[in-house]
């Protein structure tokens, strides 16, 4: 499908014309570079559950801030699978807060090329395990498309599972 972002606009024959790029990803990147992590989540229908939870737990404000952050963003399908496995999980506010913060790395905007095997501390103080042996895995979750989405305050990677922090 054609890019929605005009590369160049010009006037001719009394009308304005837009020339569109065939490289959709570059166009989308230029638009997203002006958005924050919270704005990206709230504007993308695949992350509507995440966006709602970020707002409910007042994490949308910090994730709209300066950053930099790296966020491993579970898709709606990932949340649906979690809710199917643990139907009342959202009733435990303390757990949900810990889960949301477990998806955020502070003070770093890590693209997939920056990730290497090992542990990285998250916003909730627990570490996630990164495995780059075959693709990129975060604990048991696969990083899926879209990944390396650069926004004004960091980088977002979609993942196919909700990460649950280890218990104390």
UniProtKB/TrEMBL annotation:
PROSITE patterns: FAS1. InterPro entries: Adhesion/Biosynth-related, FAS1_dom_sf, FAS1_domain. Residues 34-163 form the FAS1 domain. GO terms for cellular component: extracellular space. It holds the Pfam family Fasciclin. This is FAS1 domain-containing protein.
